[in-house]
Amino acid sequence: MKYFGGVLVLAYAALHTLRMDRFPDEERGELPTSVRSAPGGILSWHDGFMGGK
Amino acid sequence: MKVGDCPSCRAPVEFAPGAGQIKVCEYCQTVVFRGEHQLESRGKVAELMDTESPLKVGLGGRYSGTPFTIAGRVQKSNATGTWDEWCLQFEDERTAWLAESEGEWKLLFPLSNVAPPQVSALHVLGAFTLRDKTFVVEEKNLAKTVSAEGQLPAFNREHLYVDATGPRGVFCTLDEADGEVEAYVGNFVTLEALGFDESELSPTPKKEALRQARCTHCNGPLDLKAPDATKRVACPYCGALLQVLGGQLEFLEMLEKPPFEPRIPLGAKGRLHDPTLAKAEGPPPEWTCLAFLVRSCTVEGTRYPWDEYLLWNRTLGFRWLMHSNGHWTWLTPIPAGEVTMAYRLAKLGAESFRQYQTVFATTEYVAGECYWQVTAGERAQASEYVAPPRSLNVDQTDHEATFTLGVLVENATLEKAFRLPKKLNPPVGIAPAQPNPFGKKAGEAWLWSGIWAAALMVLVMAFSLLGTTETYYRGHFSVPPNAAPASPEAQRFSEPFEVKKAVPLEVKVEAPGLSNNWLGVSIDLVNEKTGEVIAVYAESEYYSGTTDGESWSEGSHSQTRQTDVVDPGQYVLRTTPTFEASRAVDYDVEVSADDGAGLCCPLFMFLLLLAAPLYYSLRANGFETSKWNDAVFQSAPNVSTFPYAKADDDD
Q: What ipTM, to 2 d.p.?
């Protein structure tokens, strides 16, 4: 336990620093070019991503 | 010097000044009392028995610088044997008594100006106080004076007595005769310390002859190792029990022979330090195995045997080795006065011992030479108190109690010390004084877990302080009437907002108006500059009601979702609600930085930190439960209770 506990604390520090201590619920993608170039821009976007559902 | 005539035989009787008012006529054994005007007879005593004592009347010595002379001797007996008490007359007019007990000598001085308790009111293991010292009774018995010689301060035909010990080796004897109680206190001494001429203290020729004695029953050679101290010899060849009397062996009875050979042979010599001592100095002393006993107790119809080995060293005296289920315990006698007894507890100095068991032990088999009047079938109440790896053992009869301090000894230690040709059987089960192998590990694991948990907490606090949880956006959204779920009409866009740092985000959706309903919201975070879309979906449901008069609720009005690290920049948020048709509710969305210490990861680490100490604690607890399940207290030979036994679920 003397060393194992230290390993655990160091592991936590490393995971946090490397941002590997999260469990994101996201989905990523790109906004379609047609939407970006359309008049109204993003406000005209009514399809595509649906929040990862 | 006062000289008179014996009232019985008219032989001259001389009284030395200051040496007592009783003189035993050396011609007719009349006890002569020196009255104010004449000598009076107090009856006769028997002729002296040869007790093979190295002392004799008239011998001179010196104690603490003061010379003395042995003025007289009283020979007493009780149900178990006969012994001598020697009256010492000091030059400074003090009187003391010197008596031998189990190979040791005790020197006792009369105590005046005290009010000792009545001996008849005391019992074995009872305590009394004299001059602020507490004494514990080790023996209570009736002594008869069978013979005497020389000049004595007093003479009683019979008297009750208790032998008691106090702290730091102080010894006390109370004698009660005709309602009068005399108290004597003193210490154990060696004959060398009493300044006797060593040439006169050698073992008597008769005792020396005992070394080459043969069994009176089978003529087998006995080769006695400690003839000075031996009172009973059990012949290892035929099982005859012999008593040592007058330098001779006398047949007493036939004993059943032990059913197996002793694991340590009789006469075997072994060198090892007394493991009950804190420090081992010098070369290890040599111990000789004198006797082998098999004892047992019966609990609920089952016989539990163990064997005991009597060890002897000429300087250090007697010790015991007890063997049970492959576990060996070294036992060193200690004065009862050193021990404080309480309910299921015994204290020796600062060390507390917990009562493990009390049983009625029967001596079944004996072989070898013993310093007490051993008999087969003798029964004693044996109690064991434990403070692993040490134990305190009390053997108690109606008249006597003996205390021993025990320590578990490794088999390998004994095999090496006694050079045993065969390996001893490995231990089976758990010994009462066996240390818990997981207890220390559990303690260490808890210590280090605590240390590392504290370090983890410090780290969590540091990350929390260094990280940010700033809120970047908060907005309220409504669903237009008649909008279909997940339809473009139901969609809403936020004003642009700025995420200042590259951080993970936390998106919280809250619908306070949710009641027996559900709401799902798809949230798309759009980076205006890069066009990257980060999408999350949060669905809340909340139901409540009353069933059988009891109100209940389940679900939540809010849900939270996390993203990975997002780039800093300008963002717009699009929400697409999903709901049960025509039951849409308003909702709030909050976007914050989630750059704190986090919860899941440190919690997981914390649980991992607890794993090892919990494991060892459970094992330690299992060990103790298993051990104490066997603890038995007998209030009578056939009445057993198991105060610590856990109920068996299967029963």
A: 0.85
